[in-house]
Amino acid sequence: MDKALINVDYTYDFVADDGKLTAGKPAQALEDRIVALTKQFHDAGQFVAFTIDRHFEGDDYHPETQLFPPHNIDGTPGQKLYGALEDYYQEIKDDPNVFYTPKSRYSAFNGTELDIKLRERGITEVHLVGVVTDICILHTAIDAYNRDYKIVVHEDGVASFNPAGHEFALEHFKNTLGAQVVTGDDFEL
Fold it and tell me: Are strands 98-103 and 47-53 parallel, antiparallel or unpaired?
């Protein structure tokens, strides 16, 4: 095991039409690909992480409070994984190579045990899917870069509510972080 798939924030609030901070149709279009990649990594015995935004009702101190509407509030349906990904997570959640962690900042590494879990398994390459490309995926990729992981971003597995930000992030992954940006047609595990 030397690779990991990191699912970032693919939750109801970020994906559903009535989600509190939704990327809408572009995010919904990722569902089959994200589920397929998650199954592919899990079936191959690779590490699969679910890093999920968690906020608290009435938390006026969190910096996102000034930037975005309340979303992914702890214990609400909005914080659950979206659609078939939630169903598949329920099937595999007890596997020791499946890791679920709430996060309170954009990066999946900030304030979580993700780095520890990756290093104890000897993982050197992280694959990123989820939302939002130019916020949480970008900050996770930057932190992965700063921790010397090889980064692979699945272009057909990321989306944003900001098309210009999405395109900027894809270029930044390649040109500034040295990440490999792949699609289903050119990816083999």
Answer: parallel
Residue segments in the chain with a per-residue pLDDT below the cut of 50: none
pTM (2 d.p.): 0.97
Q: Counting beta carbons within 10 angstroms of the beta carbon of residue 87, is it exposed (0 to 12), middle (13 to 18) or buried (19 or more)?
A: exposed
Residue 71 is predicted with a pLDDT of: 95
Residue written as token pair 């899990």: 42
